[in-house]
Amino acid sequence: MSEVTLAAAINAGLSEALDADERVVLIGEDIGTTGGVFRVTDGLQQRFGAERVIDAPVAESGIVGAAFGMAVGGLIPVVEIQFMGFTYPAYDQLISHVSRIRNRSRHRFTAPLVVRVPYGAGIGAAEHHSESMEAAFAHVPGLKVVVPSTPYDAKGLLRSAIADPDPVVFLEPIRLYRSVKEELPPEPFTVPLGAAEVARPGTDVTLIAYGAMMKEVRAAAHVLAERGVDAEVIDLRSLVPLDSDAIIGSVIRTGRAVVVHEAHRTAGFGAEITAQIQEKALYSLLAPVERVTGWDIVVPLRRAEKHYVPTVDNIVAAAERTMRS
Amino acid sequence: MSEVTLAAAINAGLSEALDADERVVLIGEDIGTTGGVFRVTDGLQQRFGAERVIDAPVAESGIVGAAFGMAVGGLIPVVEIQFMGFTYPAYDQLISHVSRIRNRSRHRFTAPLVVRVPYGAGIGAAEHHSESMEAAFAHVPGLKVVVPSTPYDAKGLLRSAIADPDPVVFLEPIRLYRSVKEELPPEPFTVPLGAAEVARPGTDVTLIAYGAMMKEVRAAAHVLAERGVDAEVIDLRSLVPLDSDAIIGSVIRTGRAVVVHEAHRTAGFGAEITAQIQEKALYSLLAPVERVTGWDIVVPLRRAEKHYVPTVDNIVAAAERTMRS
Amino acid sequence: MEMLQILAPDGTLTGEAPLSVDEVRRLFRAMVAGRAYDHKATAMQKQGRLATYASFEGQEAAQIGSVAALEERDWVVGTYRDAAAMWFHGYPWVNLILGRTGDERGGHAPDGVNVMPPSITVGAHMIHAVGLGWSERLLGSDAVAMTYFGDGATSEGDFHEAMNFAGVYRTPTVFVCQNNGWAISMPTSRQTASETIAQKAIAYGMPGVRVDGNDLLAMYQVSRDAVARARAGEGPTLIEAVTYRVGPHTTTDDPDRYRDGEEAAEWRSRDPIARVRAYLQADGAWDAEWEADIEQTEHDAVERAVDEAEALEPFGAGEIFDAMYAEPTPQLIEQRDKSIGR
Amino acid sequence: MEMLQILAPDGTLTGEAPLSVDEVRRLFRAMVAGRAYDHKATAMQKQGRLATYASFEGQEAAQIGSVAALEERDWVVGTYRDAAAMWFHGYPWVNLILGRTGDERGGHAPDGVNVMPPSITVGAHMIHAVGLGWSERLLGSDAVAMTYFGDGATSEGDFHEAMNFAGVYRTPTVFVCQNNGWAISMPTSRQTASETIAQKAIAYGMPGVRVDGNDLLAMYQVSRDAVARARAGEGPTLIEAVTYRVGPHTTTDDPDRYRDGEEAAEWRSRDPIARVRAYLQADGAWDAEWEADIEQTEHDAVERAVDEAEALEPFGAGEIFDAMYAEPTPQLIEQRDKSIGR
Ligand SMILES: Cc1ncc(C[n+]2csc(CCOP(=O)(O)OP(=O)(O)O)c2C)c(N)n1
Ligand SMILES: Cc1ncc(C[n+]2csc(CCOP(=O)(O)OP(=O)(O)O)c2C)c(N)n1
Ligand SMILES: [Mg+2]
Ligand SMILES: [Mg+2]
Questions:
Q1: What is the DSSP string of B136-163?
Q2: Taking 70 as the threshold, does the pLDDT of residue D342 lie above it?
Q3: How many angstroms does the Cα of residue D213 sit away from the middle of ligand 2?
Q4: A197-324 has CATH 1.10.3720.10 classification
């Protein structure tokens, strides 16, 4: 078997889901003939037809709203929004309708849809193409928020998201689409939502991250190991539901934590993780939990982007700061 | 002089601003002939004319987008969105355009507008009318987020927001519109953005809140005092910029903190405050910082709303928990 | 654009009736039922038993005339002001009242009743009807979706996106705009510079029709035709029902602040129920006793629903957590435990 | 709807020219300049010196013909594909190139140049033009705002809200839709079921005109009229410029995946620059030497702008914080300090 990219893993997951269940449909801008701006849906319209792999007009609110209606009507729509920066026009549909229909109808109607969203910086893209606004979704009750960082997880989490009876925002790290590869088992498999993974066991400090930052975090753990610091790395995989137990358990053991995300610092999801740690593991903490994050600025364009995205060095330095206490 | 409500204080602030500067215009749904759903703009169209107090079609994105254009063009628009639940259609305009124009034009164009938003539960309103999504705005770089809790602050902060060269989301606690009153000085005054206020000095525990929850928090401090706990109460007034120094300084003195908001817990603004406290005052903490918040559910409707909104008892209990360590 | 009318304000036919007299009697009765509910709800709100209430008085023909064109398997996707249409399509009064008391259980339509909970946000729900009809088609059914909205809602971007999607994909959707003259304090003439709402259909390559919304027969006819087209796969239709909101926007609104009382009085005299009464009476198919009788029966049904709704215990501190997901997240379980204990 | 044409594809006049030959020569030169920039930018992207680039080849007449109708005090609010229009209205090449290299300083138009940075989000910017024109009017000026957008952008809800606001408030706005046949891989025929974009104006009570977007003279004429109406307080106009994107959507796009090469070839033969050349030539107002000369001059100007852009040092770690607010917040100052140190 050969290795596949994260993009190819998602393609395979979509293809399997379309095969397995007639109710699954895909909808998004340019997902058909071109296979999407990142070619993640490549070949699917050719294989499953334009009725099930639907090219949509440029109207994100309409896409999500229509998919919502389809989901209530019995389909399982998997939406693609081209970039996270274009989800905002659909924010109202997501908050006011998608996330609420189960509650407002007390289980009579549900919206089992998935909204796939490429996110994150690091490829020197144009304005609005480098967003990491996961906190704005994680704060919305009724949504689930999932963020894979490996091809295996991407495929496995996607199948779980599609099978989930509730709406899932599925964030795909643009930077990892083609830069991580691994072999996948030939048979279908799933990865449960809400379960973090210990990507590297360790005893000195817990590094907590997800999605786009996992590559840097893994590399930082490597550097730290060389410097004699044994870091435990946790890949959250889901922000909602959050595997708080995995986080707290680890920090109670290590006594130190670094939370990493690319999103803006203020009111980013790292604040939530940090707050939970101090709530539940304060007396184990040997040092303040460090947050390594993007800044509270619009993600800079290509020529200065590197000053925004957290680096391996930043993470290593933060971990070392926690070791000093 | 007689006492005025928070709603009347805002009305007076708007009226003064319209008087003081011809560039100030108001725009929103039903703000003219009816004076708005909460009568906050009562009488202003009659006084300043329909060209400056503009009744808009039901189109929140259009209202904010048009106000953005007006602001770039040299006006100072003060937008009213009827309820926070109707800001979501305008989220894209706020994030992608209003908050960014200064950065994307490197100061050449700016958007000195104010978006007034009634928010919060507690009056048994219909679906979508009880939202507290301030975190979704505070997380957006380039916006300022201001939340008064008294008539004096409401008027003073509003004047500062209108005078501010950058866009301000101005959140008005629905529940306090008519339930708090005070005398205001006859002459114009301002309250600076970014400065918290110590609403009550104390030594044992710091209660940190803003806007809609301030009434409960003040009352909780009163109850605590009766029980021998001397609580310091901080009214943040601005979430962005945040007066971190006031928070940290107080917690370093008291060693204990309770953060209170009505918004959902997960990734709410309380997480940010908590994270900052543990970052900068960990070694002073005698107990975990407590968060007293709304739950991660859609705000329940009238018959069960009371189970959602944090109560005086909840706050007292949390403060007492911190005292036990 | 011309406005279709079949029943003149005085109850005389100006065209061919699309319904038998018996059928008209049935729909007359439904309008009477709607009004009984409307009056009851307004009264209850004044007594503090309901949260705000949005009366649809004067819009009974627009709602009943259109919804009557549907089959049971079709969908109704409406607003806070569309109780008559929802009820006619199977949504029980008790649900409608529950919703207005502020109880989420109002949103739980009985199984098999294809009526969405009323949309409180303006404009966002029409695209749901597009999606619903679309799903029916992909699942092999010929069911259609009818969506109700106001003149104000046509200003929202989501109206445009819904119309555009319906046009492009030819979804089985019937758009019923009740142009009742006002969106809270905004008259339709300030909501859009378009002379009619119906002509907006041109922008989406779909037919638009303008109809007297206070004329039960005309409403029925255009709706029947639109439903037939949708069901046959011929695509969506926009119907502009020209009507009037004779009451306040909601019980917290005071229309005297923004409009002339005479306008409302004038429209009260064009009452859609009176018009059908006159028609039936001229046909010998109406008498006062019958109307008193159905009015009492329908009123009693509403009263029973009110009793049922009010007898229901409000949610306890734990139950509010029960319907966010199929299975609560660990966070919600923790919060529920705290809530019960707090 | 009819499509206005003044200059036939072979360069012969089919109506009266709205411009003198000298003026046409000036606009011809501007089109040549636009193409010089376009070719240079495409080439630079292939060399990795620019981020993605969106070519406007074939749309020069649509842009120059419309923007030429403006006065300096007017506003241009366009997209990533409207560089020619922006430049003609005073936005320097160096700014355009800077933006494409990925440098925020590209968005800083010189003082007095009323051109907004190009909108990258589709559809959201037209309402800004509505607000800009509105502010001009309230501030006592007669300046108008012209906004450029594509066929795809007409599907966004914000297009609708912009058109509706402009109609209701009669703002001095000129909406120029360059219907270039495609929105990435979506043909206009699948973007909307409306037969034309121009007819969408009917939904907003404003005039809509359809014009050959590859005809400089027709573009100029309809734009001049629309600008005059707007300036006179007579309200907005929607112009549909029928044209074609002969190149890829952006440099990362491969049009062979979704369209027939013949269609593009066919449109290449309707080149707007060639058409004006033929017209001028027939008039004796063109010779090859002159064109070679202006081409060289314009090309050199672009080259100098490229040099200037590339000579600019990228932002350092601290400078990225400098333009979020007039004064940085304490949080930003703290972060900047960390960033410089980190
Ligand atoms: C998105 C949104 N914006 C604003 C409101 C507040 N609001 C409630 S009803 C209404 C007017 C709607 O008018 P129309 O669509 O004509 O319906 P009608 O009430 O006349 O039936 C407004 C502005 C809302 N509910 N949702
Ligand atoms: C809100 C938003 N959605 C999606 C995109 C991605 N996107 C960029 S250009 C484009 C197509 C736009 O087509 P059109 O409006 O016809 O303009 P053209 O590119 O043809 O000039 C799309 C979908 C975007 N930039 N913004
Ligand atoms: Mg109305
Ligand atoms: Mg196009």
A1: HHHTSTT-EEE---SHHHHHHHHHHHHH
A2: no
A3: 19
A4: no
